[in-house]
Amino acid sequence: MNRMIAIEKAKVYVGESIHRKKYNLMPSDVSAARAYIKEYWTHLIRNHPDDEGSLIGVPYPYLVPSYAEGHEFDYDELYYWDSYFMAQGLWDEEHKDLILGIIEDLVYLFNRFKIIPNSSQFYMTGRSQPPFLTSFILEAEANYKMDMNWLNQKIEVAKAEYEVVWMGLRKPNARQVYRGLSRYYDYNYLNDIAETESGWDMTPRFNRKALNYLPVDLNALLFKYEADFASVARRNDDKEEADKWDKAAEARKQTMNELMWDKFRGMYFDYDFTRQKRGNVSSLASYFPMWAGMVSEEQAGALVKSIKKFDNKGGLATTDFSPLSQFVSGSIPTQWAYPNGWAPLQFITVQALNRYGYHKEAKTIATKWLRGNLEWFNGHNVFLEKYNVVSPEKPPIKGLYPSQVGFGWTNSIFERFCKDYVDI
Fold first, then answer.
1. Whether this model's pTM surpasses 0.85
2. Contact of 131 with 161, CB cutoff 8 Å
3. Measured distance CA(45)–CA(61) in Å, rounded
4. 336 and 203 in contact (C-beta within 8 Å)?
5. Between the chain's N and C termini, which has fewer beta carbons within 10 Å?
6. 3-state class of 344 per DSSP?
7. Domain boundary assignment for the chain
């Protein structure tokens, strides 16, 4: 009997060892890739304190998304949401001044233009990008132990951005358009440029009519702003202020659940307020509400079940598989769609799962993404802007602009996932 038990235990141990070998990564597996990433940051730092041509000067050094010598599509400008995701792998003392400086640059841009532009180019001041300012501020405060005076000053700027840009009722910020919810927008009322403000340029989510849609991700981000304002107010012992923001967040949550939540499909969908109906494209935007902490446990469970729509060998596809995922009307290529996966959306979804206690599922997704990135890096010695997560050995589907290598937010999320799931 004891011998049989020993044999069975050995089988279990061998099975577990095989499982660990197949799914887990060791520091040695990622060491070359992380060395590449560490060296690559030096190519992305820019310092432009003065206006120069179309480039807007900002007071502190910042990171650009990518650099490749001689590439036809180059960057010198700071980007709003790229900056937040590039910070995720750099929360350390070595990069403290750089990260805090980037936040100061974003604040400077808002104070100067009353909007944080898509990027620090004058021709991009008619639109913004997905608003991550409160998250950026609060994560910097927590990581670098900033004082309440610093926090309150920065949060006041975020409040102004929220009110002026995202809750604006008329031009130049006609974003709040239906039942207190907001849309992506462009000063010139052009749908394709409004879609660019979403960061998802291009995507089948809006059928090239972005001005008609209330996006799930944008309104989840604005819920997060409201919840963050309430949290800071409580830390300042301002109950009246906290109650105001709590009520705003609750109202947004209820409206989003009414208009966007589909209990039968277990997901959120963008809402076409001009037709008063939900869109049909299943996308990872549905996990922004979970990331923001605004879903119930029941909704969280449904969203976890829905992950199978996006789950592939190299991580999560941006949308589920559908002929609509390849092109929208006018045959515009949609790089923010199946079979492509993007680092920011992997990060948001992993964080969402962790927030609601689905740690095993979060690790599985993060590890698939790391392995997919590694497969390309080991074969080509570069990281990509986006990946073909269905067939990681193949190039991603191209978009309207040339595919980029480098790549800032890919590198950063790779490093962050290594810290969270490999260095443990």
1. yes
2. yes
3. 7
4. yes
5. N
6. helix
7. 29-46+301-424
Tell me the pLDDT tens digit for each residue of 215-262: 999 999 999 999 999 999 999 999 999 999 999 999 999 999 999 999
**Amino acid making up residue 222:** L
Assess contact for 325 and 337: CB atoms under 8 A.
yes
